[in-house]
Write a structure and sequence with these properties.
The protein is of the alpha/beta class and about 450 residues long. It contains 14 helices and 20 strands. Helices cover about 30% and strands about 20% of the residues.
Length: about 450
């Protein structure tokens, strides 16, 4: 079968920026090894425009003028969009199917009647949301049950989202034990050091402020230890997002929080060096409010033998029970510091962590599942599904982007808790089917329900 794979995010010949791009290269390699012909189109940047081949021999052509700086498609000239449409049309004439990775390909008309299989690797950015709400696809692949539930409880209420299937991202667990290795330019470890890792983009929602605050709290609690917060702030040309903080802004932020002596900036590392980097830390921090659709960092960290302390946000909640992964309520620096101390005191069984990660997130199983989803039989076309959102629901349930904590409900997209003393106990008691609508006829439950509906804390069951 001939597969046209399209990535609006740029692909680079010498580095991988972000977990989604790594997944795409794994998928393309798996398709080629399964005997399929694959062409890969990606957006070009100012730093690269020449084609290159990946491990399987598939050619990646950065031939699409679709975006400005990674990862948001803006500042694109009209003639560039025309050119991209023509490139897509020419390649679509060759292919049997299109696989749109992290779909933001609005030019469905350029693909003609060819079956479209897409994947969505976030449910935050405008591209993913518009794709789910407005663009057709025969099949949609998502990396977690969390994302599937979010789509069904939002876009699924008002549009026909097609077949939704969950294929968890795969995590490589071979090569244990991992030899630790600090980045170039970073001082070697001393006996009194406590090394905290923040291996995330410097998008504010990824939690750089939170990591700095946690580091300051650890210094207060452990004054005899040398607290070191390592942060990749120096990215290769053409790969940074304008929405990210630069190194100067991070240094200014650290100074304002009293963390300037704790922060150590280093260059962005290629993926092959990340296991050693994780192994060099004492704890990996994932403290941001960003609504993770999967959460590779925490899993890669524990596989390398370093515990991960994560905000209880998005699909990170699904990692409950993985050895070495600890959660805290977003924004609670004291709880996060307690989790860091607990993680250091209890240590981690890296072999047990690797076994648990393999059981849930085997990379071979992921590759095989993607090949089947992209090349296998597609669901028969039928009449559009009745939209659940067009009728009054008989029951209401907790939104999948929320979780209960006593009388409080946390909302991933608002990044805050809100009190619902009347309906929170009912939501817990009637989960997962939802509270019958007749229980909300008057009084405090009715007013809380109305507020919860408007803000998205509850959705139709």
């Amino acid at each position: 079968m001939r597969i046209l794979a399209v990535s609006v995010a740029p692909l680079f010949p010498d580095r991988i920026m972000g977990g989604s791009q790594r997944i795409l290269l794994e998928v393309v390699d798996a398709l080629v090894l399964a005997g399929h012909e694959v062409r890969v189109l990606s957006s070009r940047t100012s730093s690269h425009s020449q084609g290159f081949r990946i491990a399987s021999g598939a050619l990646v052509e950065p031939a699409l003028d679709l975006r400005g700086s990674f990862p948001a498609p803006y500042q694109t000239a009209p003639h560039s969009l025309t050119s991209a449409w023509q490139v897509l049309q020419e390649n679509a004439a060759w292919a049997d199917r299109a696989y749109l990775h992290a779909d933001a390909v609005y030019f469905r008309s350029a693909l003609g009647d060819m079956p479209v299989i897409r994947s969505l690797h976030d449910y935050v950015y405008e591209e993913a949301l518009l794709s789910a709400f407005t663009l057709p696809a025969a099949r949609t692949i998502v990396p977690s049950q969390y994302v599937k539930d979010c789509i069904e409880s939002s876009a699924g209420l008002v549009s026909d989202t097609g077949e939704l299937i969950v294929v968890p991202n795969g995590v490589a667990t071979s090569g244990w034990p991992v030899e630790s290795m600090l980045p170039d330019g970073i001082k070697s470890r001393q006996e009194a050091d406590m090394i905290l890792l923040h291996p995330h983009r410097l998008q504010p929602e990824k939690g750089i402020r939170d990591s700095l605050r946690i580091a300051v709290e650890m210094k207060r609690r452990m004054p005899r230890r040398r607290i070191r917060l390592l942060v990749p702030a120096l990215q290769p040309e053409g790969s940074a997002d304008d929405a990210e903080l630069g190194d100067t802004s991070v240094l200014e932020l650290a100074s304002s929080l009293g963390a300037e002596d704790l922060l150590e900036l280093h260059a962005w590392l290629p993926s092959e060096l990340m296991p050693g980097y994780f192994a060099a830390g004492d704890v990996t921090l994932c403290p941001g409010s960003f609504v993770e659709a999967f959460g590779l960092v925490s899993l890669e960290s524990v596989v390398a033998g370093t515990p991960a302390v994560c905000a209880r946000v998005g699909a990170l909640r699904e990692q409950q029970g993985i050895p070495g992964v600890t959660h805290f309520d977003y924004g609670d620096v004291q709880e996060a510091a307690e989790a860091v101390l607990s993680a250091m005191n209890s240590g981690i069984d890296a072999q047990a962590a690797a076994h648990a990660v393999t059981e849930r997130y085997d990379i071979t199983r992921m590759r095989e599942s993607y090949v089947e989803a992209i090349t296998g039989a597609l669901p028969a076309l039928g009449p559009a599904r009745r939209r659940r959102g067009l009728t009054d629901p008989n029951a209401w349930k907790l939104a999948p982007w929320c979780y209960l904590d006593g009388d409080r409900i946390y909302h991933d997209y608002l990044a805050r808790f809100e009190q619902f003393p009347a309906i929170a106990p009912l939501l817990k008691r009637h989960a997962p089917f939802g509270i019958p609508a007749e229980l909300f006829t008057s009084g405090r439950p009715a007013s809380e329900l109305e507020s919860g509906k408007k803000q998205g804390f509850v959705v139709p069951a």
